[in-house]
């Protein structure tokens, strides 16, 4: 690509990714070239006749090499959009996916109602990673406060940077904890996108997930339900009487997760499907008897 125009480099980048077997080669090539040169999508077109220098060519080549090795585009870019947020990624964090936005959207209305009724809404995000879920709720529900919990110090550092980057750091704090072990107090919303992949399946995942997402955020144990058991058991003593628990699930886990939660005193009140028609998010409340008992405490 030496001595090429910008337009020529974009075309060559597309061919290189196609030959490497990248499904979305054209779009990925445009994003990587634009990011390497700090150009907007419009500038990528309007400056097509510009000749690139050696430094620019090297930057593009490095990005394409990483993508050809199946590193996801947004990991190469270092950031990803999530609802109205821009989130930094790190090796210790799962890359937020659009499916998880569905879980956030299902909790906005109850969070806003809690704010209107009581003047506050305290959110606990278990396995916070980048902070995506909690930070998006704080962004969409002014005045709400949140605690992001993770076992990984690196993930918590990333979540704090993202809180600052998106202007909600004054309403967000982090706790290093194995689920509820270091968590105190009650919360109006407990939410999680926990690891839910069956352990024996992890090694069969696509390279983009298997090689670049942290195993801690993928491995759900022998049957994929370890995290849900911990959340169901701990949520009982950490959820306010009228609170909600929101969980992202695998496509075939609706009934088993609902049964685990029911055994701990929770009732499924909403199940939301993703754009592919798969069960994706479950919303729970305490059963009436458990709400009354919690209120009396």
Task: Report what the structure shows.
It is elongated and about 70 Å long. It has 13 helices and 9 strands. It has 2 domains: 6-69; 91-296, Vaccinia Virus protein VP39 (Rossmann fold, 3-Layer(aba) Sandwich), CATH 3.40.50. It has helices at residues 6-19, 25-37, 41-46, 54-68, 73-77, 98-118, 132-140, 153-165, 199-202, 207-210, 226-235, 254-263, 288-296; strands at 79-82, 85-88, 122-126, 145-150, 172-176, 187-192, 239-248, 266-273, 279-286. The protein has a 7-stranded mixed sheet with strand order 5-4-3-6-7-9-8, with helices on both faces. Strands 1-2 form a two-stranded antiparallel ribbon. Helix 2 runs antiparallel to helix 4 (54-68) and helix 11 (226-235) runs parallel beside helix 12 (254-263). Helices cover 45% and strands 19% of the residues. With 297 residues, it is an alpha/beta fold.
């Amino acid at each position: 690509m030496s001595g090429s125009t910008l337009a020529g480099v974009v075309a060559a980048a597309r061919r290189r990714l196609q030959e490497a077997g990248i499904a979305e080669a054209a779009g990925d090539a445009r994003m990587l070239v634009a990011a390497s040169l700090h150009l907007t999508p419009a500038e990528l077109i309007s400056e097509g006749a510009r000749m690139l220098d050696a430094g620019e060519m090297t930057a593009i080549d490095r990005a394409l090499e990483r993508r050809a090795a199946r590193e996801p585009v947004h990991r190469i870019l270092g950031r990803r959009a999530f609802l109205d947020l821009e989130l930094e990624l790190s090796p210790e964090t799962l890359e937020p996916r659009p499916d998880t936005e569905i879980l956030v959207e299902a909790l906005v209305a109850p969070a806003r109602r809690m704010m209107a009724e009581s003047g506050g809404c305290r959110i606990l995000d278990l396995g916070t990673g980048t902070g995506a879920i909690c930070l998006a709720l704080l962004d969409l529900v002014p005045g709400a406060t949140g605690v992001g919990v993770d076992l990984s110090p690196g993930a918590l550092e990333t979540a704090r940077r993202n809180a600052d980057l998106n202007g909600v750091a004054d309403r967000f704090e982090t706790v290093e904890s194995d689920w509820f072990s270091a968590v105190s107090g009650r919360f109006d919303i407990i939410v999680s996108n926990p690891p839910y992949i069956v352990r024996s399946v992890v090694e069969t995942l696509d390279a983009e997930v298997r090689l670049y997402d942290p195993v801690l955020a993928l491995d759900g144990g022998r049957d994929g339900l370890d995290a849900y058991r911990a959340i169901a058991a701990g949520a009982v003593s950490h959820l306010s009487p009228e609170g909600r628990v929101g969980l992202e699930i695998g496509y075939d886990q609706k009934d088993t997760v609902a049964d685990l939660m029911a055994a701990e005193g929770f009732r499924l009140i909403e199940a939301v499907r993703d754009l592919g028609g798969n069960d994706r998010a479950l919303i729970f409340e305490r059963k009436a008897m458990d709400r009354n008992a919690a209120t009396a405490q």
